[in-house]
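Writing this down once: the sequence line spells out the residues, with the fold written below as integer tokens. This is how one looks:
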Amino acid sequence: MKQLLALSLLFFVAVLPGLAQKNLHVRSPNGQIDFVFNLSKTAPSYKVTFNEKTLVEPSELSLTFQQTGVFGPNLTQRKSITRIIDETYELVVGKVKKARNHCRETTIPLYEKEGNKRQINLVVRVFDDGVAFRYEFPEQENWSSYVLTDENTTFQLTQNPTVRALFLPNFTSSHEGLYTTTLLGSIKNDTLMDMPALFEFPDKTYLAITEAALHDYAGMYLTMKNGPSGSSVLTSQLSPLPGQTENKVKAILPHKTPWRVMLISDRVGALIESNILTSLNEPSKIVDVSWLKAGKTTFPWWNGNVTPDTSFAPGNNFDTQKYYIDFCAANHIEYHSVVEYGLHEWYVNDGAGFVPGPNVNAAKAVPGLDMQQVCDYAKTKGVGIRVWVFWTALYPKIDSVFAQYERWGIKGLMVDFMDRDDQEMVAIQERILQKAAEHKLHIQFHGSYKPTGMHRTYPNELTREATLNYETSKWSGLDTPDHDISFPFTRLLAGPMDMHLGGFRAVPDNQYKIQYTRPLMHGTRCHQLAMYVVTESYLGMVADYPDAYKGQPGFDFLKQIPTVWDEVRVLNAAVGQFITIARRTGDDWFIGSITNSRAREISIPFDFLPEGNYTADLYSDAPDVAQNPNHLTQQIRTITRADVLTIKLAAGGGQVIRLRKQ
């Protein structure tokens, strides 16, 4: 009788709503990834398995609000709604032309049982190559707005994976630095970790954490914190609003957070090929994109504004700009950037060191520079003019400045020194994109946070920095081949990045020295060529001065390579060692391989090609690159999908191939 009573009580507890709930599974379309949701009395939690192996152990989710406390304990879960999303969309600019958004989505409504009785929905999407979830705040009677002090999203990873990430001292950052490689368990609590961060498990499964659709919210980082069981777990950390440290987000309902994304595969190249970030963003808000044109651009600041011996005085004047415009017109380079000369920007400014002074005017050129004349001449040559501007010189007068740029005929600009990703700065960058589109201007953000796939929504965002790039050749020399091979598996996972490409003065390491003018390069010429394929940027720089390219081997490859693509394939990849990426435009393929400071042989399979013969133009490290790293060999041969090519990469070297359908 006692056993029967105990059994009856157990049954009663099991069916009583809110006291015990079954796991809710959200599986990827191919069934390999499983997101398992559970609601306990203390908090919602989730775990993630891949091929039936647990990658993320049960990890708690909660949100802390300024006045209404923690949303997490004592919740009830109402009926979830699941749907299959399967759509194809086109990108105006991107690493692919057509992308497939295919996932299973489940919306899980969560309600507080007591107190404010708030509702927050957890929306989960599981793709074949990853997981994404976000918090949605529907409109409701007793809750109209919120101030968020902490988003307590956690990631309790199994097996103590190897981490590759950028560690930062604080939130004020241009996100430029060397990546750290270490075991997850060795990271000290409260270490601020930038995203994307890559986690390599012992069985060579890969998981990267980042975010998508950063809109009206604070940028997210990861830190190690003590979990409920005393173990250390990765916990989200939001960039605080300016002037204080407690408040992170202020919002009016309805509202949504960005997506928290985990890219997952047992092939690291699949993370680079993934389109999850753009799939999680809204379609383009720019209706007419006929004016928008990706391409390559000069950037004379990098080379030191070098001009040849001429009859004109170099400087912020028409003749200097004409010299670069003529170079662009002769070499299929779409844009010339008007930046500065003699450490003074092209526009009027009474501040020092490019910092805007009280009388700065980003819509007025310095004396001696007629921007209308420059733009008119460039137009006759089929070249677009871009400019550089400090963001605080632009933003307070954004309407009048952009209106003047449009009248002159400027096509786009680099907006620099932003160095924040709090909610206020995120809104500022989105407004810059919106206003720029109204005036038919493209944008390149520098001193900025990582991309989050928003170039689908605002395709006039052609690239971002947020990485240590070749500009540091002018002052530190940290941009080595070992650094170059770290970013494809970290920063590149977030999307387009500017590397200040095109330096044509490689020297052996024992001859390397810092030069602000005519900077020197680590690695080989072929390594530099391959960077145009390995990186993703819809505004690739050709940053050296014109005479640096004249008659130089490999420059013909730079003239040919596009900046937007129809397809991408990662053919070879070993994290931190080497990578081969193939990108297609039309019927033509461009293949780039780079290695770290170690020489090696790798094999390139061509089974990704359609049937038929292809003419292959190969540019490879010459045998003497240890002494003359700018030397390369060129070869033409026929390739079919049955071929496998073995190539030799010198230390710090590279190789590029252009395939044309016969």
User: Anything to note?
Assistant: The first helix runs from residue 2 to 15.
